[in-house]
Amino acid sequence: MDISTALVAVRGDANDDEAVRLAGELLNSSKSTLYILYVIEMERGLPLDAEVGASTAKGEQVLKHMEDVAKRFKCKTEAHLLQARQAGGAVIQEAVEKKVEAIVISMPYIGQYAAYSIGETVPYVLKNAPCRVILCRGERPAPVTNERNR
């Protein structure tokens, strides 16, 4: 796969590191650019530019960590924090504006004991992306053992 620009949408969970590493491996060229995006979803009752200190601090911390993860790759890295009503729409808007060739988006493994759900963001990105979309699903958790059943 010959990709020179990629956007990684991060959420601040354990799967983000793997998504950034995957994107870095796909690019891994000094002429490539890796965009890392953290979206703060704003409630409808708040203006989009409202001060959300705790969320902003968390987002900045996540982006700083993701930049550290990306340092081992040869590509240029740009990290962005956005406030939006919907994360999926923000991801698509950034992908269009940056003219990326691929979007890498992580999602946790959910479903060991509940109905499987991929949320709202992933289907929205898959449906509306102007480029390739690469899903990076987290590892399946180890089965929980019951001490009495041994």
Walk me through this protein's architecture.
- By secondary structure, this protein is an alpha/beta fold.
- It has a single domain, classed as HUPs (Rossmann fold, 3-Layer(aba) Sandwich).
- The chain has four helices and five strands.
- Strands 3-2-1-4-5 form a five-stranded parallel β-sheet, with helices on both faces.
- The radius of gyration is 17 Å and the shape is globular.
- It starts with a strand and ends in a 13-residue tail after the last strand.
What is the compact description of this entry?
The chain has a single domain, classed as HUPs (Rossmann fold), CATH 3.40.50.620. The chain is 33% helix and 24% strand. It has helices at residues 16-27, 53-70, 87-98, 121-128, and strands spanning 5-10, 33-41, 76-84, 102-107, 132-137.
